[in-house]
UniProtKB/TrEMBL annotation:
This is Methyltransferase type 11. The lineage of its organism: Bacteria, Bacillati, Actinomycetota, Actinomycetes, Kitasatosporales. It comes from the Bacteria. Keywords: Methyltransferase, Transferase. Residues 53-148 form the Methyltransferase type domain.
Amino acid sequence: MSLAESWDRYAVGSKPRRTVNAKGDTTWLNWTQYADHGPNESVLGPVAGRRVLELGSGSGSNLAHLVTLGATGRGVDIAPARETVARECWGHLPGLEFRTAEATTFLSETDETFDVVLSIFGAVWFVDPDTLLPLIRSRMAPGGILAFSHLPPGSQGPKPGKAGLRHDRTPDEWGRILTGHGFSDVRVSLIDPPEGKAVGTMLVRALAT
């Protein structure tokens, strides 16, 4: 079974996202693995008029939220089932596109540039950063923002069977790696889990120099 097939099988078995959150919003951005928990899109600064790429866009819900705030969005996911669901849910939004592709392939082939790149439990966690980060940087406008989240190193959590190695890094390691690949002002925060949960979330933000 190929990597794409493994991810597609995982995607098909995933539960759909709620249509409304606890605040009654129909779109929202969630960096963590828990509902209604953690920071919102303010991590990215103002997004209106900005070109946003999400690597591992899943059902498209996070990216769709940014588009409702005035961004132009491109979502890339390795699983064909993800693109199908994203188009069904959000295809009506202008300025929003989805594509099935492996992240490094897309970045190597596209001639687009982006002001914001995000990955929420997505490609940055599953692709060797020494391969992926230079490609991301090459497609980012100077001063652009890269932000991504995943479980803290050593955490236990669900992993799709045969879907690839997770590239866990400590905050200091992410700082060194990102700086070495053309990023600056690296900020890493550990978001505590909600009450009753044991595992938090690591959130990383950096600027394209």
